Amino acid sequence: MPEDTTAKKIDLKSNDNAYLPIPDSNEDMAKDPNLFGQPTMIRGGEAIRILCLSRHNFEKSVERGYIRKEEHDGVTLYDEDDVKAFKESKKYQDMINGVVDGRNQLNDLTGKEWVPETKSYMYQKGLGADHPDAKIERLHPAPFSFQDIMTLVNFFTKKGMSVLDPFGGVGSTAKACELTGRFCTSIELSEKYHNLSLERLEKEVGPETSKKHRFINGDSCVILPTLKSASIDFIVTSPPYWGILHKQDQKVKKNRVEKNLDTQYSNDKRDLGNVADYNEFLDILCTRIFLQCGRVLRYGKYMAIIVSDFRDKGEFISFHSDLIQRLNKVDIPGGGKLYLQGVKILIQSHKSLHPYGYPFAYVENIHHQYILIFRKKNA
Description:
Layout: H1 26-31, E1 41-43, H2 44-51, H3 55-63, E2 69-72, E3 75-79, H4 80-87, H5 90-97, H6 111-114, E4 121-123, H7 135-138, H8 146-156, E5 162-165, H9 172-180, E6 183-188, H10 191-204, E7 214-217, H11 220-223, E8 232-237, H12 250-258, H13 278-296, E9 297-307, E10 310-312, E11 315-317, H14 319-327, E12 337-347, E13 368-377
Parallel strand pairs: 4-12, 5-6, 5-8, 6-7, 8-9
Antiparallel strand pairs: 1-3, 2-3, 9-13, 10-11, 12-13
Helix pairs in contact: 8-9, 9-10, 13-14
């Protein structure tokens, strides 16, 4: 019986195919890649272009056997099918993104993802005032971007962990937690903003999403002592900056009034934005809020406080440093201390410049905030 000479696609994974005829050039292969059943072989430059790898990582992939190579007349060629299959593999994704270290108990980031987040600054992100999902956020006189909170939540927690915001506002932290798979406890004094938080998740994320989290309408000074000690994995919040909203730029305030938007948090006497004396404000904020937050925080976990410095009657108030002095290495009720781990600058490059002080004196345009990062440790 005559031998069947029909061309067949050869299984490259078989050891029987160690020696295959190679076309004279890539051009010949392009004309008929399956000539005599052989695969398309490509040069290294083309393989690197397909994979978007450095030459070093490409060569490592070949050495590990992920991509077959062959020599022909002094030219090294690579199996295009192997290249494409490798690009779809988990090994390729691990090479591109890195692998989460098994010892990493803090977050779900790989080494490549972790390192950039340790910079001492970050740029504030936002949807933009005209974005449809910014409608509820704009109703608050001092909203905080859920995108920036997502960055912090992703670094300081793993999926499924618990996050607390004692100044919940209109639910930026809750939205960040829902989008990243964390559980949020949000405490908000204002009934209006509390209700807007629930509405925001339902409208911007999805129906029933607000039910996955715990929203508490009440005073954090009263609520926090009722929470279980060492029960929270991460705390992130942006408190009132004393009475800064009462001293707001008149043009800004006028614009919000014209749009029927709030210019201050509330008229509630319990609202820390309404405390007249700065030192009294600091005492309440640090002793009754942040040290209680420290109590409910688990040992070894972190608290991020986002604040800004400001001016009062021409005097520059270094709010962030005042908080550090009152919180760093201070005893927490029930045990432990808060230790400052770093200060990250949040750059607000979108803000407009104003000619404050011109042409008589230096008055700063404050276009950044501070993220104070504390960790709870044994005393």
